[in-house]
Design a protein that fits this description.
The complex is a heterodimer of chains A (291) and B (185). Chain A is of the alpha+beta class. Chain A is built from three helices and twelve strands; from the N terminus they run H-H-H-E-E-E-E-E-E-E-E-E-E-E-E. In chain A, strands 1-2-5-4-3-12 form a six-stranded antiparallel β-barrel. Chain B has one domain: Arp2/3 complex 21 kDa subunit ARPC3 (Orthogonal Bundle). The chains are: A alpha+beta (291), B mainly alpha (185).
Chain lengths: 291, 185
């Protein structure tokens, strides 16, 4: 009886101590979390993926009414501009029909020449579409959370919109994945200038315009040059559109991404067959709406 | 017959007790739940009028409001949880949002407590320095983490957006407090 009372007193004493130093303890916890995060271990990756899988369904539920309202708003907005847009699209369609005929002829010519030279083509890419649930872009980080469902994906895969590269998969959970945007401070993508094939690395710094670094000093880079992925290291397929050089100064070269990172609704995740980052069981076509 | 009636009335009393207990805990959790919902809502992919896709720091507004108005149900652990959810959604270093909210907790508890019960404008004015200090501390901590200064202009822009949105978020919090919570908690 006496021992139990002593134990109870000890427990209440510990509880009082914890209460007294709770603030200090939580500050320490936050600090330790940051330190552990810095080490970038598998443990952190897994924990973060699980946490994303737990929190994201809540966002999915919240999205339902919000998406409905947004769709009605968009519908009304589009109706207003439908006539003008229809005319514009008709004109564009006329032009594109000509381009399409030319492209078909070039494709056949390309195939014949490739056969003649015994040229082996680069690996095909598969695209898996995912819906964006959340986006953020402030001074501290730039990322998205996308709903993948049961579609196969692994860390490091490149993520696109219809305009160009937006980032790469960072944390992949069972159903959801976090996408690190090309503007994030942790993002590094091997790229090249499309016309001159000068290589470099596109490095984010949490601003809207990522920097082009590690380019040869003698290279002539000017505003308006198109940037595409270089495919160096075999992580990304080459030739994917990334952006255009917007500013060249003595300090740095800035790139304006093709993709509108402010409002991304759907993304495409690239499965690049022939690289190591595709798991054997996931090789080939995914379960979802592949294109 | 009499025994059966007694049993039914006992069951009804038990049900009432359960209802009351459940309602008590749900109401206790309301500030935390509403804060988390608002934080998640702020990250939804809608076309914002604000350029650069800068999102307001909704968590700061919620934590400030609930610490001043209902510190009995919104404690230190709630602050930690809101920060944790914020950390999970963003790609910022884990712990940085928690750190920011804990700084706000210290400021509110030690310096701004006398703002409680003051007119709305005074509370809004009190939020301005509190939010600024919290955000600057986070900016400094994350800058040290990365070993380079992050764009301060974006932090300031986010700060202004947050301060501008304070009345709207406060209105939602007032609704939760007045319409959904009772004084029994």
């Amino acid at each position: 009886m006496k021992r139990r009372r002593v134990l109870f007193m000890q427990l209440s004493h510990i509880r009082q101590l914890v209460k007294k130093f709770a603030l200090v303890i939580l500050f320490l916890v936050a600090f330790v979390m940051m330190l552990v995060n810095k080490t970038d271990t598998v443990l952190i990756d897994k924990t973060s993926s699980v946490a994303t899988d737990v929190v994201s369904p809540l966002m999915d539920v919240l999205m339902l009414p919000a998406r409905g309202i947004a769709e009605v708003y968009d519908y009304l907005k589009e109706m207003r501009l439908a006539r003008e847009e229809n005319q514009y699209l008709k004109n564009e369609n006329r032009k594109l029909r000509l381009v399409s005929e030319r492209a078909k002829a070039l494709e056949i010519e390309n195939k014949l020449l490739a056969r003649l030279l015994n040229y082996s083509r680069p690996d095909e890419i598969n695209l898996v579409t995912a819906r964006v649930l959340s986006e953020e872009g402030d001074a501290f980080s730039h990322s998205l959370i996308a709903y993948l469902g049961d579609k196969p994906a692994t860390k490091g895969q490149v993520v696109l919109t219809d305009r160009g590269v937006v980032g790469r998969l960072d944390k992949v959970g069972k159903l959801y994945a976090k996408v690190l945007l090309i503007t994030d401070i942790n993002s590094r993508i091997p790229v090249m200038i499309e016309s001159t094939r000068v290589r470099g690395i596109l490095a984010g710094d949490n601003t809207r315009r990522p920097k082009l670094v590690f380019t040869p000093l003698a290279s002539e880079i000017k505003p308006g040059d198109r940037i595409v992925t270089s495919g160096v290291a075999g992580v990304f397929p080459s030739g994917l559109p990334v952006g255009v050089v917007s500013e060249v100064s003595k300090r740095d070269i800035r790139v304006r991404p093709f993709a509108d990172l402010d409002s991304v609704e759907y993304v495409k995740i690239v499965s690049f067959a022939g690289t190591e980052n595709v798991r054997p069981e996931e090789d080939g076509v995914g379960a979802g709406d592949n294109e | 017959m009499c025994g059966r009636r007694k049993m039914v009335s006992e069951l009804a009393t038990m049900n009432d007790d359960w209802d009351e207990t459940l309602r008590y805990y749900l109401q206790k959790l309301l500030p935390l739940v509403s804060s988390i919902v608002l934080v998640l809502f702020s990250y939804m992919p809608f076309k914002f009028l604000v350029p650069e896709n800068i999102r307001p720091e909704i968590s700061l507004i919620c934590v400030y409001y609930w610490l001043l108005h209902r510190s009995d149900v919104f404690n230190l652990f709630s602050v930690f949880l809101v920060g944790f959810v914020d950390d999970v959604v963003t790609a910022a270093p884990w712990g940085s949002n928690i750190f920011q909210l804990l700084v706000l907790y210290v400021l509110v508890n030690n310096l701004l407590k006398f703002f409680n019960g003051k007119p709305f404008e005074v509370m809004w004015a009190g939020f301005v320095p509190a939010a600024l200090i919290s955000m600057l501390v986070r900016w400094l901590v994350v800058s040290i983490y990365y070993g380079q200064f992050l764009p301060l202009s974006l932090v300031m822009f986010s700060f202004f957006v947050t301060v501008a949105l304070y009345p709207l978020i406060t209105l939602i919090n007032v609704f939760v407090q007045n319409k959904l919570m009772t004084d029994e908690v």
